[in-house]
Design goal:
- With 283 residues, the chain is α/β, with parallel strands linked by helices.
- It has a single domain, classed as P-loop containing nucleotide triphosphate hydrolases (Rossmann fold, 3-Layer(aba) Sandwich), CATH 3.40.50.
- The protein has 8 helices and 10 strands.
- The chain has helices spanning 8-16, 82-89, 112-122, 138-149, 154-167, 184-196, 214-229, 241-246; strands spanning 38-51, 54-67, 71-75, 97-102, 105-106, 123-126, 202-206, 233-237, 249-254, 257-262.
- Strands 6-7-8-3-9-10 form a 6-stranded mixed sheet, with helices on both faces. The protein has a 4-stranded antiparallel sheet with strand order 2-1-4-5.
- β1 (38-51) and β2 (54-67) form a beta hairpin.
- The longest helix is centred in the last third of the chain and has 16 residues, at 214-229.
- The protein starts with 7 loop residues before the first helix and ends in a 21-residue tail after the last strand.
- Bound molecules: adenosine-5'-triphosphate (ATP) and magnesium ion (MG).
- GO terms for molecular function: ATP binding; ATP hydrolysis activity; transmembrane transporter activity.
- Residues 40-280 form the ABC transporter domain.
- Residues 1-35 are annotated as: Disordered.
């Protein structure tokens, strides 16, 4: 994704180069370039925890907007709030304050049931510690989100789950193993296949290469990059420099805040969300 595509300068240049009205050729108006859809908007998103009488500001007023086709790496030292931010984006934790739009929907306004369905359809989450279901085989773990969503025959479920597992490089003879019989790297790949099961618009991954050797790490990075190129938004929390290198945007966090956003340009078609009044708080 070319970030410059969104820049204000670019838009001005286009306007400046437009021919004067009297020179307009007599042709039907051509549609302009379609802007990539904005998939994730966060505005003043914050999360604090109360712990032993202290308030820990894990995520502190972060704002950004990302589009389909973007690959974003979130970097920063341990404890700076990366996983907490990813959990907020995935709806797995509720923000203390701030606004969040996923694919144009204000997730806060969804009821419990609607929110579950929405998350299952739009988001794929790869956890730092996999969270595979131990009693199910690799194949069944990948089939589960599709079963919950419904609408597929059993044969189609099996076929798609096998295809996804092959795609993440899991040997065919491991598809019917339960997670306890798989290595950390193999479990990681099952977790990625499961996150892709419902073809989500947004993929959130917490240290997806943290438990794999460098060969499988490369495979995962290539896969995530490819998923972004196919039009998903891929947001990856990582310490892995090779992921950061291929990312379109590098967001560096420090103490819950965004320290830098390398190569970031706010999409011109992103809707600004109203921010609530800041409350005084202790860090
Ligand atoms: N449930 C919780 N209760 C209290 N404090 C929490 C909780 N979860 C996270 N924190 C605190 O919030 C801060 C951010 O934690 P977070 O897990 O987001 O960091 P991180 O950047 O992902 O770190 P790492 O790179 O080690 O995974 C830390 O100070 C952490 O101790
Ligand atoms: Mg973390």
């Amino acid at each position: 994704m070319d970030a410059e595509f969104f820049s204000v300068e670019h838009t001005h240049t286009q306007l400046d180069l437009a021919p004067p009205v009297e020179q307009q050729p007599e042709q039907p108006e051509q549609p302009g370039p379609t802007l990539p859809t904005v998939t994730v908007v966060a505005e003043g998103l914050s999360k604090s925890f109360r712990f032993a009488g202290e308030v820990i500001q894990a995520v502190d007023e972060v704002s950004f907007a990302f589009t389909e086709g973007q690959f974003i790496a979130i970097l920063g030292p341990s404890g700076c709030g990366k996983s907490t931010l990813l959990y907020l984006l995935g709806g797995l934790d509720k923000p203390t304050s701030g606004e969040l739009l996923i694919d144009g929907v204000d997730v806060k306004k969804l009821s419990g049931g609607q929110e579950h369905r929405f998350r299952r359809q739009k988001l794929g989450f790869v956890f730092q510690s996999f969270h595979l279901i131990p009693g199910l085989t690799a194949l069944e773990n990948v089939m589960l989100p599709m079963e919950l969503k419904g609408g597929m025959t059993n044969a189609d479920l099996h076929e798609r789950a096998h295809t996804l597992l092959r795609r993440v490089g899991l040997d065919e003879n491991r598809h019917t193993h339960k997670p306890g019989k798989l290595s950390g790297g193999q479990q990681q790949r099952v977790a990625i296949a499961r996150a892709l099961a419902n073809n989500p618009r947004v993929i959130l991954a917490d240290e997806p290469t943290g438990n794999v050797d460098s060969r499988n790490g490369k495979l995962i990075i290539q896969l995530l990059k490819q998923l972004a190129e196919q039009g998903r938004t891929v947001i990856v929390v990582t310490h892995d420099r090779s992921i950061a290198e291929v990312a379109d945007v590098r967001m560096e966090m420090e103490d819950g805040q965004i320290k830098t956003m390398e190569n970031y340009v706010r999409p011109i078609n992103s809707r600004s969300l109203p921010q609530k009044q800041k409350k005084g708080r202790k860090r």
